[in-house]
Amino acid sequence: MNLGNDLGFLPLTATELHCLQGCAQGDSDQKIGEDLELTSGEVASVLNVVMLKLRVPNRLAGLAKAGRLGLFDQVNA
After folding, report:
1. Three-state secondary structure string covering 28-62
2. CA 77, CA 73: separation in Å to the nearest integer?
């Protein structure tokens, strides 16, 4: 199945990457939202979309897969 890139998942936006990075650092949805000027509900929604794009069932699995794929390196690039 071709999802538009060689990694096998839909590309993440800058906001999605920043939310994922905040989640990896252990920040709450509220803290991530304050940093990005989003509500905690919006952050939760963004992270739900990220998990769908990564094709994983939950945040923990998403963080593990994102680490394996090197997505955290893209946040600061």
Report:
1. CHHHHHHHHCCCHHHHHHHHHHHHHHHCCCCHHHH
2. 7
> What is d(CA 60, CA 77) in angstroms, rounded to the nearest whole number?
23
- Is the pLDDT at 29 greater than 50, yes or no? yes
Count each helix (H run) and each strand (E run) in the chain, helices first.
5, 0
Q: Residue 54's closest CA among 38, 71, 73?
A: 71
Query: Token pair of 36, please?
Result: 């990005």
Q: What count of other Cβ atoms lies within 10 Å of the Cβ of residue 38?
A: 19
pTM score of the predicted model:
0.85
Residue 74 is predicted with a pLDDT of 75
Considering just the CA atoms, what is the radius of gyration of the chain in Å?
12
